[in-house]
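Standup notes, structure subgroup. Blocker cleared on the iron/sulfur cluster input:
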Amino acid sequence: MKKEILICGGTGCTSSKSLELLDEMKKLIVEYGLEEKCSAHITGCLGFCEKGPIVKIFPKDTFYTKVQPEDAREIIETDIIKDELVNRLLYKLPGTEEEIPSQDDIPFYKKQLRIALRNCGIINPEVIEEYIGYGGYLALGKCLEEYSREEVIDIIKDSGLRGRGGGGFPTGLKWEFTKNSESDEKYVICNADEGDPGAFMDRSILEGDPHSVIEAMAIAAYVIGAKQGYVYIRAEYPLAIERLGKAIEQAREIGILGDNILGTDFSFNLGMKFGAGAFVCGEETALINSVEGQRGEPNPKPPFPSTSGLYGKPTLINNVETYANIPVIISKGAEWFNSVGTEKSKGTKVFALAGKVNNIGLVEVPMGTTLREILYDIGGGIQKGREFKAVQTGGPSGGCITAEDLDTPIDYDSLVAKGSMMGSGGMIVMDEDNCMVDIAKFYLEFTLDESCGKCTPCRIGNKRLYEILCKISDGKATEEDLDNLEDLSNIIKDTSLCALGQSAPNPVLSTIKSFRKEYEEHVLNHKCPAKICTSLLEYKITDDCIGCTKCAKICPAKCITGAVREVHVIDNTKCIKCGACFNGCPVHAIVKE
Amino acid sequence: MDYNYDIEQDMDKLRDYIDYLRIIKNEPGAVMPALQRAQQDYGFIPEAIVDIIALELGIHTSEIYGVATFYSQFRFEPKGEIDIAVCTGTACYVKGANDILTELTNLLGIKNGETSKDGKYSIEGIRCIGACGLAPVIKVNGDIYGNVSSKDIDKILKKYR
Ligand SMILES: Cc1cc2nc3c(=O)[nH]c(=O)nc-3n(C[C@H](O)[C@H](O)[C@H](O)COP(=O)(O)O)c2cc1C
Ligand code: SF4
Ligand code: SF4
Ligand code: SF4
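Run returned:
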């Protein structure tokens, strides 16, 4: 049987040379004359980014990790020609070092259920036939031939699917509203802005399975009565743009997009619009302004896009992952879908698991999976055996969840109840070396950067909030500042125009609530327990100093003294905490205290 | 940084660009694609180009600046020969992206978002490139370096000098 070599082409793996690996494989296949016996392709993100580049070989489903271009020859000679495993490249179970040859047996994948990511890492995203081979475009055909527009809406409603872009609004209901808006022209839009720092699931779906989004948008257009659709995607995501562009072209060529689709009287065209890096453009009214070529500032709602959206016409906006779920729901039925998940959150959610966790990557789990399962069973626990401190979910609109809530089954509502949010699905794991004041500051700085400035509470309120946080991390704050922080946060939440401002203080409120002691350490004792807040720590030179004088030469404040070959000393009253000495010392003799 | 952009020298590129403007002229929302194409062709948005967009699309330059300044992708000065991007997504941040930025400032004397006076270096913080498994990540002239610590920066930059 012919062997197929699949090489992960997600952003994580291509960043560590998976495309060079592909070239090398292709070259070797020719060199050894194996064209009849095997072929090598690129696939979408396999999710296990920590162990990338990943190579899978079918039909045996062999799973190799951290494969470098130099390893290609051994894979060809051993696996393809001799049909033996390259043991050194197999995944090894941490602790026992047991080798696990196939994907399904790796703990990282065992608890996952891939619905939105069903094709990612399996099909070649650049070949439409592969998508069709896996059942693609059948759902569109079914909708056009068998189902009325109302019937499709009923299926989506019955499935219980809620929007994956953050808010969790019932998708079927949104489709119904837009369908019921009277207008000669309507639009469908896919929100692929994904500006949330630390989230990359939407991009991975577009990179790994663009046709599923195209198919869903065509179904949506049929249902609401639109002829034109747009995917709004960041210009900074070149790989996703390239793959989606190719997919749109292929779909057009075989008559999936264009006039009289599949021989019916339904016509639909799809184009891309490029965002230019403004987080607020993910907000739907801002996104519409941006597509119209204006500044991406939000408008007050109502009117909602479902009644007045792009060019004032009814517009359906859904998130990439929401769309990716649609074709399977149509194919397999509402009941199949809503048998997965919790009572009010059906199906699965894709999370971008990152930070101080062992198995970094994309994971898709049924709603209701606990954080502990995600972090420990799938994520493989905390890096370097450190202590878990918190996991930040929901990005800049979310909050931190601590150890005592690790057993909460996660869904839209339980996360909100814990003071956080599902958001787009970023999940950043933090350990004892992370300072929570600093994390709150990070998110606030992000929102400040990204605020459109249209309304005062967000523009000025968040600035003040940020200044107070800076005072705290500089050790110059008082207890009164702590109280102000909470009051101001609540005012900003209540009075901002759009959800960006309304949620900006969430990371602050949530970290104060769970880590008040840490805030107090900064305020009362001028100490940063995690040793992150630079102003509150001191650089010291230990006895490991060999007296090379390098630090004294690079110190911009000229506050390091010492003779050659003798231990140097820092005058901490003059030090500006730039860290140059710390980074420069060849023997790591300088420590932070 | 001061830069001189000699549009005369670039006439062929400019002609192509103006042709492009004429194609998109009648589409709704042409300002964004016009700016995006300029950024792609020139690496930044030269002042002269803003005037040309205004002329061709028949809108006031203030409107174009209004749009251009709203989006972080558009820049009004060229990048340095050695173009350094530091990922400041959350995953990279919790693993020390800030220390990397500080060390770059220590070494190069310019801050995030600046280009050095001689046009040699530019530093830019970018949000999440989607390679969180390699965090913290920096990109130098398009080459990606993963698991970088502030102590490695000097060594990495040496490759480009
Ligand atoms: C500041 C801000 C940024 C947002 N960014 C995104 C985004 O990047 N992607 C997305 O799908 N939704 C984003 N949203 C949510 C959208 O406004 C909208 O609710 C969503 O696209 C609707 O699709 P869904 O119902 O399928 O989730 C953002 C909202 C706000 C307030
Ligand atoms: S809350 Fe912030 S982002 Fe939203 S409209 Fe107001 S200023 Fe703009
Ligand atoms: S941190 Fe900077 S200022 Fe302080 S001693 Fe080191 S090099 Fe000098
Ligand atoms: S650089 Fe390190 S070893 Fe050299 S003098 Fe400074 S502390 Fe000592």
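Discussed briefly. Residues A 163-167, 169, 191, 193-195, 279-280, 282-284, 317-319, 322, 424, 498-500 surround flavin mononucleotide (ligand 1) (CB under 6 Å).
Next: hand off to the docking folks.
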